[in-house]
Write a structure and sequence with these properties.
This protein has helices at 12-16, 29-42, 56-66, 92-108, 121-136, 149-160; strands at residues 2-7, 49-52, 73-75, 143-147, 178-184, 189-197. The chain has 209 residues and is of the alpha/beta class. Helix 2 (29-42) runs parallel beside helix 3 and helix 5 crosses helix 6. The longest helix is centred in the middle third of the chain and has 17 residues, at 92-108. Keywords: Glycolysis, Isomerase.
Length: 209
């Protein structure tokens, strides 16, 4: 079976480099164009189900992945973006000025330091693991997961944990990119076969952030 991990299309806060977290920021014009590109890129792929974050930017992207096909689009709260608490809506420059010590400590020791009012890395990893357990127990064919950059980085860590491809590094993907895994339900083996693919966006001039 194939598992496609897809990041939502671009938003205005992506351009402004604001931390979105669990704020419900919609796709902008470029994000909607990227979603249409995903419709074309995914239309020949025989998907059994699409699981998505319920946040509007991800849910709209998931709808584009389905296109006009009668594929179930299931919203899972586990797939919401990381909760950054009081930092949501702010830029790195603003945080360095207002909460610099904690922000620097979070970058240096994310397993120990959480944003005020936000999630710890352990909490994020736990819900990624719960999401994957729930999804794989229901997989009957090729499946897409639509979520967010931070969440998907942790989700991929869970998928590759214990495999030869688990290098401990964080895998960050671009807006509207497609990352592909091969999954063998009989053995539980999972293999990364295509990472952060953006070729379907090649005619758009601004898809990288």
């Amino acid at each position: 079976m194939k598992l496609y991990l897809i990041r939502h299309g671009q938003t205005d806060w992506n351009i402004e480099q604001r931390i979105q977290g669990q704020q419900d920021i919609p796709l902008n014009d470029t994000g909607r164009a990227q979603a249409r590109c995903l419709t074309q890129a995914m239309k020949e792929k025989k998907l059994d189900a699409i699981y998505t974050s319920p946040q509007i930017r991800a849910y709209a992207t998931a709808g584009a992945v389905a296109g006009n096909r009668p594929i179930p689009v299931v919203a899972l709260p586990w797939l919401m973006e990381i909760n950054y608490g009081d930092w949501e809506g702010k830029t790195a420059k603003e945080l360095l000025k207002k909460d610099g010590d904690r922000y620097k400590a979070w970058w240096d020791r994310p397993a120990e330091v959480a944003p005020p009012g936000g999630e710890t890395v352990a909490q994020v990893d736990a819900r990624c693991a719960a999401a994957w357990d729930w999804i794989r127990s229901r997989m009957k064919g090729d499946t897409a997961i639509v979520s967010h950059g931070g969440l998907l980085a942790h989700f991929m860590e869970q998928l590759l944990k214990g495999s030869g491809e688990d290098d401990g590094g964080e895998r960050v993907v671009h807006n509207a990119s497609i990352t592909t895994f091969e999954y063998q339900p009989e053995t539980g083996e999972i293999r990364l076969t295509g990472f952060d693919e953006c070729g379907h966006l090649r005619f758009l001039c601004n898809f990288t952030e």
